Amino acid sequence: MAKGNAVVIFMSTSKLKIYLDDTVKDSELFQSKKEFEICKPEIFKYGIMMEEIPNHIKEADFDYLQSKVPAYDLLHSDFINLYTNRIENISNDDRKKKLISEIIGVAFGIKYTTELLKTNPNKFKKIGVPDDGKYLDYSIIEDNKEYELETKGTVAKYYSTFKNDILQKKKDQSSKNVFLRFGTIAMINSLGDTKKSQCVIVDDPPNEDNVANDKNSFEVQLLNYGIFLSYILDSKYFNRYIKPLKQKKIKKVKIDKNKFFTKYIFSGKEFYGECFDYRLIRENEYTNLNLSEDKTSDFQERTRLFGKTKFFIGVDSSVIETINRKDIESLKNYKSNWIFEDKELTTRFLDKDGILIVKSKDGDDKQLERVFPEKEVEKRLGLSIDQQRGIAHKCGAPCRSKEIKGKPCEIRTYREYCHFHR
Ligand SMILES: [Zn+2]
Question: b/e per residue, 286-303, with b = 16+ CB within 10 A?
Fold first, then answer.
């Protein structure tokens, strides 16, 4: 946006006030925090985190491999506006509006709790019943105390129905004994509503008798990295990561750094991950693209529609090494710096859990452009179009077995190379 224009300026971060409901207003713990700050890529990241982790990703699932992440970002960019002290949910579609309020609800709840308990987003465990495959409730253990967090998000004026809902659930006799069960309600705005957004905290008193042990903390952290790995690690190797983890065979959980698409250097560290682009979003509810017969013109048409918006999502290499060593204590104590760099065409966001998200337009970020050039985007789009038309190609990688060494592999695949050659 040009400087000096007297138009609405969207921010990339918002500072939100915390409002303590009557149920918590005397609590020392909650009184310790008055406000928190959240940036746009952070909301996007929590949107990914609330998803269910897939048990297995199919070879040809291009939606999962390269379409879902940019589709999420597009949803966030189109329907969430940040201002200095308010956040707008501007969707007019009921289902989408609810989803966006829920995402912001989770983002507020986890960000607030992370700062309140001075902990790390990688330690939250998903609990409760997922709504449409999305988790709204979380638990976390800090200093042998277990906290359960119920998140809500709304554009409504009043929060009493949400509060009653939270308190009702807590009365439920079947629920487990924890130190503290509380709720956060993100009170955000509809388009044009200029009140300040806030985060309301609701709870009942802590129970000092309940001591929790966090013997599963490593597993919880591995699951949290698992949701990101499902998008950024080659599906064959993601499946090998998640299978033993779900079977609780932690010793067998390993991540091969060489099986990421690329790495990106930021703040003196290496991050391993995957790249994404708006142009690789498959036709879905958020976009309306028709496949063209001619791949090159299809690519050009998409570039005209979406411009060049590229992403990198990666994980700190030291996190990978720590996981591979099964170094429980180091992962528990791991804490990256929280960094948010916001330039006109490029944003780079590094969270405390070592997840880096880079978003860049028009080739502005030279490093991203180098690892993810235009020809790679066009190639991926070509593979995706072929797959949608049911056209597989021969893998072509040189065979490694003795008798036929060097002979091009004839296995048909939708990916660049077959399952054996990746
Ligand atoms: Zn092959």
Answer: ebeeeeeeebeebbeebb
CA distances from 24 to 67, 123, 180, 201, 346 (A): 42, 24, 11, 7, 40
Determine the pLDDT at residue 139: 94
Q: Tell me the CA–centroid distance for residue 412 and ligand 1, in Å.
A: 8
Q: Which residue has the tokens 């797959």?
A: 387
The set of residues, in sequence order, having a beta carbon less than 8 Å from that of 390 and lying 6+ positions away, is none
| 380 CA to centre of ligand 1 in angstroms | 17
- What percent of the chain has pLDDT above 90? 74
Cα 90 to Cα 87: distance, rounded to the nearest angstrom: 9
Domain ranges of the chain: 13-203, 217-389, 392-422
Residue 398 CA to ligand 1 centre (angstroms):
8
Q: For the chain, what's the residue count?
A: 422
Ranges of the chain with pLDDT below 50: 1-5, 285-286
Per-residue pLDDT at 128: 85
- Residue 132's contacts (CB-CB under 8 Å, 6 or more residues apart) are 99
Distance 140 CA to ligand 1 centre (A): 44
- How far apart are the CA of 406 and the centre of ligand 1, in A? 11
Please enumerate in sequence order all residues whose Cβ is within 8 A of that of 117, keeping only pairs 6 or more positions apart, or say none: 140, 142, 147
β-strand pairing of 309-316 with 269-277: antiparallel
Ligand 1 centre and the CA of 417: distance in Å? 6
Nearest residue to 30 via CA among 184, 208, 209: 184
Ligand 1 midpoint to CA 408 (Å)? 8
Give 79's contacts (C-beta < 8 A, 6+ positions apart).
89, 90, 91, 96, 97, 100
* Distance from the alpha carbon of residue 404 to the mean position of ligand 1, in angstroms: 13
CA of 31 to the centre of ligand 1 (A): 60
Residue given tokens 């040009």 in the structure block? 2
**419 CA → ligand 1 middle, Å:** 7
Phi then psi dihedrals of residue 122, to 5 deg: -75, 0
Residue 139: both structure tokens together: 């638990």
DSSP 197: P
